[in-house]
Automatic annotation (TrEMBL):
Keyword Transferase applies: yes
Listed GO MF terms: kinase activity; nucleotidyltransferase activity
Organism the protein comes from: Phocaeicola sartorii
InterPro entries referenced in this protein's UniProt entry, alphabetically: CcrZ_PhaseVar_Mediator (IPR052077), Kinase-like_dom_sf (IPR011009), MobA-like_NTP_Trfase (IPR025877), Nucleotide-diphossugar_trans (IPR029044)
Domain of life the protein comes from: Bacteria
Pfam families in UniProt: Choline_kinase, NTP_transf_3
Assigned keywords, A-Z: Kinase, Transferase
Record CDD domains: ChoK-like
Protein's name in the database: Choline kinase
Length: 528
């Protein structure tokens, strides 16, 4: 299979330039990235279906890339675009939607599959335009943009598929009889195939996205692509082998180990397959020194293991921060969409109940005001410059301590870092919480604020979580305390970002966006 079709005819709603052609990093745009991935893997017959401002795509035409104009692109949808390429398709082919950003491993996996047809799915993104899928025993049984139509949705359909020539011919025959000019190709494929002709590959923890509007482009530039850059910036392989050799001194690690990077925000995480066993190796990231006391992290994470809310940790080096954790096979890492499913919210509330009511006394406190002062000092020591406007609100930041004391602060064992990626689900559906770097004795309302803030919880889901946690008796001061902690967290993590970036890391607009949101929440607090 050497043929690939890129669909990029759609008329944009809010841009004069097609989004696949707008650079997101330097001079690189989505079309450039897709073509580079395809040609690197060996596709030398690429058909690009164009429409909206077709003249802007002409520079790509060459001996390997054919441009096909989609007729009536303004009034049709993706099936019409795919049908327009029929004169140039003579074999099985890869289909890529031009507005899609993805890791190259998606194309690599589809290119290797022996299935004639194969679709790709991943975790729910929360974009608002998802095509949800229902599956059964490895095959897709239903696709819908309406969750209410699915009994069990397994994830979201990506705009990248392998389609057999035979299936394509059936789709074309059905299309000739179709009166619906705005039909999309994925629904036509469902119409023309049986369940057993619709296998899929599911990618967990995938960095990907679609660019349909200006907000999507902003997120790609400032969040999604920086995350991929960090993931694709591997540590030296020999150093990783040395870490593992220290952990397994009696084993010949170099000859037996398979290492695969699996991401991480502030640290680098690697899946390690060794002697038939699977682990996650955590190596601290840039600029971690001075931010985390590894002794406390080790002690607190082991307590989490004993409580059954965190995976087993066979090895922890409290000097270097290198950690080895049991790998949870086929684990699903939650994201800002999947974490808000009611079943997951109930489990997270139960995890926090188990931790907060455990009567464990961590050996360290997590005091937000001490943390802010500590990060301010780190920022000064590395010649960092805080965002404009911070000096004017610093008194407001530290003035919140008095109000919190008035409302009442109860110190309990807390995890303190409720980003969705720190919740993972095993094959049986059980949730675990991981990464205890910032854990310590704290007010549980900090946890709730972090949970809501990091995943942009809608108000109904906030109320549902609080109702689950407090078992129907939510204290009256809860909402105000959560808002105060949301404000303080945005300030803390914006300073954290400045420190990390002075050490060479890159987070796009993550820091300034958090700072600006903190300013908005400060105004809400003052109005109340």
């Amino acid at each position: 299979m050497r043929t690939a079709v890129i669909l990029t005819a759609r008329k944009e709603k809010d841009s004069e330039i097609p989004y696949p052609l707008i650079p997101f990093e330097g001079d690189t745009c989505l079309i450039d990235r897709t073509i580079n991935i395809l040609t690197r893997i060996g596709y030398d017959h690429i058909i690009m279906v164009v429409g909206y401002h077709a003249e802007l795509f002409e520079k790509y035409a060459n001996s390997q890339i054919v441009l096909v104009k989609a007729p009536d692109y303004k009034y049709t949808a993706s099936m019409a675009s795919l049908a327009a390429a029929k004169e140039h398709i003579q074999e099985d082919f890869l289909l890529v939607e031009g507005d899609t950003f993805y890791e190259s491993k998606v194309i690599e996996a589809l290119s290797k599959t022996t299935h004639k047809n194969c679709l790709t799915i991943t975790g729910e993104s929360g974009s608002g335009d998802e095509a949800f899928v229902e599956t059964n025993q490895g095959f897709i049984t239903k696709i819908s943009k309406d969750k209410h139509q699915l009994c069990n949705f397994e994830g979201e359909l990506m705009g990248i598929s392998k389609i057999s020539f035979e299936t394509y011919q059936r789709m074309l025959q059905r299309w000739e009889q179709c009166s619906n000019t705005i039909m999309n190709y994925e629904y036509m494929l469902m119409d023309c195939t049986s369940v057993l002709e619709r296998p899929f590959i599911c990618f967990t923890n995938l960095i990907w996205g679609e660019v349909d509007k200006s907000e999507d482009l902003y997120n790609l530039r400032n969040y999604i692509y920086p995350k991929l850059r960090r993931k694709e910036d591997p540590f030296d392989h020999d150093n990783l082998i040395c870490y593992l050799q220290d952990i397994f001194p009696d084993e010949n690690v170099a000859e037996q180990t398979i290492i695969e990077q699996i991401g991480g925000l502030s640290n680098k995480n690697f899946k390690v397959t060794f002697s038939g066993r699977e682990y996650v190796l955590r190596v601290p990231g840039i600029g971690s020194e001075g931010m985390v006391v590894r002794t406390f992290e080790e002690q607190n994470s082991l307590q989490g293991c004993r409580l059954g809310i965190s995976p087993n940790i066979p090895y922890f080096n409290d000097k270097t921060g290198v950690k080895l954790t049991d790998y949870i096979h086929n684990a699903e890492t939650l994201n800002s969409a999947t974490i808000q499913r009611k079943s997951n919210i109930r489990q997270i509330a139960a995890i926090y109940q188990t931790l907060h009511r455990s009567y464990i006394r961590f050996n360290n406190d997590f005091n937000i005001f001490h943390e802010i002062r500590k990060y301010e000092e780190l920022m000064l020591n590395c010649n960092g410059q805080m965002f404009q406007g911070y000096a004017g609100i610093r008194d407001d930041v530290f003035g919140m301590e008095a109000r919190l004391n008035e409302l009442g602060v109860q110190l309990l064992p807390c995890h303190n870092d409720a980003v969705p990626e720190n919740f993972i689900k095993d094959e049986s559906g059980k949730l675990y919480i991981i990464d205890w770097e910032y854990s310590g004795m704290n007010d549980p309302h900090w946890e709730f604020a972090a949970l809501f803030l990091e995943s942009d919880f809608i108000e109904d889901n906030q109320d549902y979580f609080l109702d689950c946690y407090f078992e129907g008796n939510v204290p009256p001061e809860t909402k105000e305390k959560i808002l105060i902690y949301e404000f303080l967290q945005d300030i803390l993590w914006s300073i954290w970002t400045v420190v990390k970036e002075t050490q060479g890391d890159y987070f796009g607009t993550y820091g300034i966006d958090r700072f600006n949101r903190g300013l908005d929440n400060l105004q809400k607090l003052k109005q109340n």
